[in-house]
Amino acid sequence: MKDKALLFINGDHPKSLPDPDQYGLIACTDGAFHYLKQLGFSLDKLDFISGDFDSHSGADEDVYLEKFILTLDQDKTDFHKALEIILERGCFSVDVFGGSGGEQDHFLGNLTVAYAFKDRLRIKFYDEFSEYYFVPKNFKLKHVKNKMISLYPFPSVENITTTGLNWPLTNGNLNITSRIGTRNFAVEDEVSIQYQSGDLLFFVGINEIEYPGIY
């Protein structure tokens, strides 16, 4: 897993922490540093802490100064700058915690940053509700029966066909201004998606839906 990174950014903190031993690189933005400290995460495992440090406070953090990377470019978000560093260090897959929650303009900004990096990095977001990421034009996922599935065009997807969903699509089109595919659910163990053009953001719920018919 040397080419896989773990990145914490400054949204809602995770309810449970992933196993750091599964990653070749571990990093956080300056704002996320505070909640990692409160959650008891082993800060010695951090390879770097990046940002403009507008969220930095607390003298006890000075022990980690050698891991701080100051990134002052105000034309880029802290998330964007952290991804650039991760790429420079030879990682091409990254699991992101703290991408949602808080102020929703941050959440939308994080999705836009992930879109900008989607051809260079395999980025997967995790929060307390779901995992979400951009998927290729031919995609399959197993072990999802009765889980919420949402398809979100970014901004459009053409000729999309799905199997395994309660409301399937056959050569359909999705567009952010007219038709999106949120709040569906899997009726089979495996879901498959094929589409001809565009970009698709895929959400899968962490837990099974107790009464999927109500959706």
From TrEMBL:
Alphabetized CDD domains for the sequence: TPK
Signal peptide: none
One GO process term, biological-process aspect: thiamine metabolic process
EC code: 2.7.6.2
InterPro entries per UniProt: Thi_PPkinase, Thiamin_PyroPKinase_B1-bd, TPK, TPK_B1-bd_sf, TPK_catalytic, TPK_catalytic_sf
Keyword Plastid carried by entry: no
Cited SMART domains: TPK_B1_binding
One matching Pfam family: TPK_B1_binding
MF term (GO), any: ATP binding
Keywords: ATP-binding, Kinase, Nucleotide-binding, Transferase
Residue ranges annotated for the Thiamin pyrophosphokinase thiamin-binding domain, each copy included: 143-201
PANTHER family: THIAMINE PYROPHOSPHOKINASE
NCBIfam families: thi_PPkinase
The protein, known as: Thiamine diphosphokinase
